[in-house]
Design brief:
- The chain folds into 2 domains: 72 residues, no CATH class; 179 residues, MetI-like (MetI-like fold), CATH 1.10.3720.10.
- With 322 residues, the chain is mainly alpha-helical.
- The chain is built from 13 helices and no strands.
Length: 322
Amino acid sequence: MLNYVFKRILAAIPVLLGVTLLVFTMLYFTEGDPARLILGDTATEEEVEALREELGLNEPFINRYISYLGGLLRGDLGIDYITGRPAKDEIMERLGTTLKLAGASIIFSILVAIPAGIISAIRQYSLIDIVTTVIALLGNSMPNFWLALMLILFFSVYLGILPASGLYGIKYYIMPVIGISAGAIAGITRMTRSSMLEVIRQDYIRMARIKGLSEFVVIVKHALKNALIPVITVIGIQFTVAVGGAVVNEQVFAIPGLGKFLVDAIKARNYQVVQGGVLVIALICSLVNLIVDLLYAFIDPRIKNQFRESAKSREKRAREEG
């Protein structure tokens, strides 16, 4: 297992390097002068040129990129051009808010989607199944920003029962969580239904019912456990989507998280903050994918046995070579 984790970490390094190169290249060729934006329109050309020299903006592309990679190896994400503080500190101060929002959205999605998918599967083609399928389709079709605006219009403007901006208490989470989780609920519900339909038709499920086990035990203990592998995959994907979706929702709901911070940094040509923020999000996505793969082994004994057999074969080869 440790060997597998180590290999996955090594495999993530080229992905992260590719992300840094792609984002760095896009920002390098983006129109706009960070030095001019920092100093304002009243600054003279000499002052702007001096600041560009200080920030290293006059260096060639390859020199700037190599310098950036060297900073990453030291854990340095650069400097926030606006505040002058380390970009790492600025990002980490806001990352917790985004992770809490994404985590709450995924937990809410799981609590709603998995029971909905199970009920829809065991009552296939019933009215409940049809309604669930239609709602899932709508949730998958609605853009996050549109749903967020509709929620604000209904609950804040018309009813006046929920705050439209900020994140200062539980009630502030309600609309952002719904806005982010709509697509996740749709995806998890559809996958749970599809996976459960495949599992409940298996012979061992029929045998469990013949033995006289209650329907609850048959569905939860036997069917659901074996149907969870593809569902966990979708949950992992939806968590990464939720982190990315927070960029839009934080902007709509004026939440001081990493997403809103990155949008503001893009507008200000705050390159180092943008590069660092995207790298952190890519690292989170890689970590989530690793966690999902490890969860497979705890849920499906066959995958755990594959790890054990692989370890035994390596030990056997080592003894033979020794």
